[in-house]
């Protein structure tokens, strides 16, 4: 076979110029954009939940204890019990029509709308897809799918406004693990945190204003609830806690509210370590005991509604508030596939695609 003498720059799909007749057909070079979210089980049954939780809780970015200590506890204790409780939580929010989690439904729709926006600007030079760090569609399969479509450059876009090691970093890690297995690696860029981007803050603020416009009375307090991390992460250099605090401050300033109108809390804590706080589930109860009878909760760290928002916030945390004497609880949905959120994602993507398109 004769050597290839020119780059793949001809239109359409076929053999490279000057390539031998037995050279495999290669699609025209394109740019891929891969949206990445946390993950989802394939079903709510025990086996599906155990498989998903096993992958998630075995990630050293998520639980960084020594495997010699952690894996026996995980395999023999946690994964024999937790699939039942987690399966029940997922069943309470499951998209029965599509037989999938809301996170999967929403991420697919986000991907479709982002694809429409980018293709309106760049035509068929861009291919957009989505993946999950845990579960399906996997990061590996999505990256290979983009490469098969001719994507020689890929923008990897973790859907986490605030950077954290257990979210953004592990998503990036997994993408690069796939590259380690490829003969022909695409060039790849990773999208940085966008927690302070005006388009993102504007979308958050608009979602608050839209929800409150439908209420008879404004809540006494808006709680900005973020997923928690161990306090140790902050000391070790993870910027997540600081970025969450800044998101809340920028949201407050954009809304034109006072410091007492909005508070920052953290949810989903587990294990013996001290976590950043205050814990959302406890703080909403304390607010109720202080006489704050009307409460609204927003989740700025989540790009799409999931079990942590639809079940944990809108069921468990709501119950904690009402049992402590609260009267009106309003959950403000994640930005999901709102048009202003899609425009924010497009703005971030276009900026990171500079020089490629």
The helix content is 40-55%
Q: State the helix count.
A: 11
Runs with pLDDT <50, length 5+?
1-16
Query: Strand portion, in percent?
Result: 15-25%
Q: Overview of this structure, please?
A:
With 357 residues, this protein is of the alpha/beta class. Among the domains are: 44-91, no CATH class; 198-331, Rossmann fold, CATH 3.40.50. It is 45% helix and 15% strand. The chain has 11 helices and 8 strands. It has helices spanning 46-57, 67-91, 102-122, 139-148, 165-180, 198-213, 231-235, 240-255, 280-289, 307-323, 339-352, and strands at 30-40, 126-135, 151-158, 187-190, 221-227, 262-267, 294-298, 328-331. A 4-stranded parallel beta sheet has the order 2-1-3-4, sandwiched between helices. A 4-stranded parallel beta sheet has the order 6-5-7-8, with helices on both faces. It is globular, with a radius of gyration of 22 Å.
